[in-house]
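Subject: Interface between my chains keeps coming out wrong

I've been trying for a while to get a sensible model of this assembly. When I model each chain on its own everything looks fine, but I need the whole thing in one frame so I can look at the contacts. Pasting all components below, labels as-is. Any help appreciated, I'm running out of ideas.
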Amino acid sequence: MLLVLSEEHKEHLGFLTQVDSAVVGEFGRIAVEFLRKGTNPKIYEGAARKLNVSSDIIQHGVEGLTYLLTEGSKLMISEIDFQDSVLVLGFSEELNKLLLQLYLDNRKEIRSILSELAPKLPSYHSLEWRLDVQLASRSLRQQIKPAVTVKLHLDQNEDQTTKILQTDPATLLHLIQQLEQALGEMKTNHCRRIVRNIK
Amino acid sequence: MRFRFCGDLDCPDWVLAEISTLAKISSVKLKLICGQVLKDLQGEGIDYEKILKLTSDAKFESGDVKATIAVLSFILSSAAKHSVDSDSLSSELQQLGLPKEHATGLCRSYEEKQSPLQDSLRARSLRLNRLDSVSWRVDHTLSSSELQQVNEPLVHLKFTVRDGDRGVTEPFAMTVSAEKFRVLLAELRQAHAMMKTLS
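Reply #2:
Try treating it as a single job with all components included. I did that and got this:
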């Protein structure tokens, strides 16, 4: 599968032919660093001063490189496909090899960063519980009513929410039974066959 | 095998695995590390640097240090949770393979701090909201738009409630007429008498 690059993208990457390969390597390192930790515009200024061009051009070059890497990693294109896609840009042999090396070295890490961007439901963080016995209320004295209070801590994209639930022991036992049944489903032949095929 | 300090359940596999890591430190150093872990369990914070220094002789990697802290936290908090006395804890740890001097040292630190630890665990138990303070004011209504001579006492009550989750206090105010207030007071007195018979 080939990457199709837009005209604008090719123009941005065209800047890379005007600098030597050490600089392209540096840009590649900056691009991966930005993918890991976020962009830092000050770096553009520093590089622009050193190379004597406007910082816009540097920014476009780095962003073009980043986009090339993320699109390649996202689609998990093979070496040959990547080389063919880059050939279109008309770079030198050395530059092509450099870009390929950059892609192969960082592909796994970029894929793991991209996997964190998928939408997520709230996930389990922790659980606190308490067992109480209600002995009396305003309307009725001399009672014995056990109750379990549960505080469920949920995590959603670094947002912590809590849910407070209360149940009597019979419902709790039923809940435990249902959850154990759900766990037991993993051991059925049907699930085992699917898991074996995924692996 | 059932262990009292695990709540009459099997000992978790990871605890079994890390017992051998604990045996690598000298028993004196283990007692000092226990002291630090106990401080952390009581909410006083942990001095990670000190623990690193104490484990440096045994040439622990950072994973081993974290495992040591985790297994000691589990053993000490679990023993306090199930109110295990230090002799039983010592014999159970020896059954798991911890050398005698190590087990004795650990249990001596546990015994010294068992009550304060249980108190701090009790304080950390699940509580929903709690009452922070109460303030009141008695007014006397002279007259109103409906009736020229009212002449009735009125109580203003303000409860400051501390939210269990976020720890912020919220005020909750209400006005109570004289009769309603008498009923409220009588009911609360009955509830208080019932609490006294229980404690």
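Reply #3:
Confirming on my end. The radius of gyration of chain B is 27 Å.
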